[in-house]
Structures are given as C-alpha cells and as structure tokens.
Description:
Helices cover 67% and strands 0% of the residues. By secondary structure, the protein is mainly α.
Amino acid sequence: MEKWYLMTVVVLIGLTVRWTVSLNSYSGAGKPPMFGDYEAQRHWQEITFNLPVKQWYFNSSDNNLQYWGLDYPPLTAYHSLLCAYVAKFINPDWIALHTSRGYESQAHKLFMRTTVLIADLLIYIPAVVLYCCCLKEISTKKKIANALCILLYPGLILIDYGHFQYNSVSLGFALWGVLGISCDCDLLGSLAFCLAINYKQMELYHALPFFCFLLGKCFKKGLKGKGFVLLVKLACIVVASFVLCWLPFFTEREQTLQVLRRLFPVDRGLFEDKVANIWCSFNVFLKIKDILPRHIQLIMS
C-alpha cells in the first residue's frame, strides 16, 4: 500500500514538472516562416484532417513538403488526425487548410500542451510505473527512486514540453514492449514494439536487441519444436501489425515508396538526423563527405 502511495506522489511530481515546463515558450514561437516543431505538429494535424490519406506524404499545392512535410510513420499521422478531430471541435481555425499556417494563441498552446500530457498519461507514465514496480530483487525505496529518475529525466521533458514533440509515445510503446517480453508475453511485447517503430522510425535503433533476444528465446526452446512455433507466431504478429498500420499506403506501389522516401530521406545525405548513426561517429575520424561522392555513400549505407 505504501509503495503505491509513494508511486502516486512520484507521478504527481512528474506531472507538475511537465506542466510547469509547458507554461514557458516553445521552439519557433513568433519566428516565421517555419515557426519550429510546434508548428510542425500543428501542421500535420492540418494536413491529415483536410487531405485524403493518399496525399499525406506527397508534395502538392495543398501539401508543400518543404513546409514541415510529414516525415514520420503512419501511426504518427493517425495520432495527428485524432488530435485534429478534437481541434476541429474546439476551434476549426486551428487546422484550417492554408490559413492556419503559423497559428499561435494561448488557447491553442494550451490545447497542444494538453495533447502531450494526455499521451504521457495514457502510454508513457503507466509503462514507467509498471516497469519500476515489476523490477525484481529491488527494494521499494529503489523502485521509487528509479521511477522518480525516469519520470524527471530532463531531456525528454524539455524536448516534449519545451521544444514540443511526442517522443514519450514511441518510448512508451517501446517500454511496453520490454515489459511484455520480460513477463513472457512475447507476442504482446512484439506488438507494442512494432507500434513504437510505426510511430517513430528512430525506434529502429532498438530493434536489434529486441530481435536478438526473441530469436535467442526461440533457439532456446528448440527450432524443431516450441521454438519454431514461437518464431512463426512472432513473425505473424510483426507482419500483421505493420500491414494494419500501412494498409492505406499499400494500395499502390508508388504510395509505399513515397512514404519510405519520407521516412528515410537519404537524398539529404547520410548525416540527416533521421538516418545518421555510425556515419556521424565515423566522421569524427574520417571525413566521409569530403572523400566519397553522394551515390557511393548511399550504396555503402
């Protein structure tokens, strides 16, 4: 009983810090023409609400990809659409096509901040609390300390509530995935992690340990028996979750390719934030950009 009381206090402290940070400004406030990531998230609501699905990732007169074009996976787009329906109910001007570009007001700021907080309450914070409570061979005091450290991690709070993004959603799904496979609910854990990838492609960075752990589990059970059955089940749940998320974009080959181009913009070079990984580290010692032409870099990648 005491553990849950203390955990409630920790959650309230985490929420208080989050909302306190959200009272301050955000990236790009009052700075045309792009206005920062706050405007990017608002613009995605505008696009997903006013345009058909087939146009979400394509450049057009109504969807200028140079102006915060959608470049995250489908689940992010669906989240933006859900927020847009709420925004439409409160104030249609917030997501009006074209005319809402750069919209700023205290009411809209309150709405946008609230969407992040609700996402935290529904996905991220419950995963953190359950994860800390499920830690074995650790005292209640250490569980509370762990929860406090995670929920007060300044990087995530500043990015989501100051700069303005929804990183806690993808991290929350990933953490639910960790909880699932930790409790031998491998199928649910795989589903949760697939949702994390389909929300933000950067979760691919964590895909290798998930894959290796689950594959190792299959080997341990024996690939000629229960291990093979588990492997087939895992493959089915991964394929099914991706198909469901991407279904509207599988109608045409060009649709699928265009979404992939937006998610992995290698045309911008290997050092763009969504594709850079080992390249940035390697570049410290060897200036790849100065030595190799662009097309060779892409072949190497």
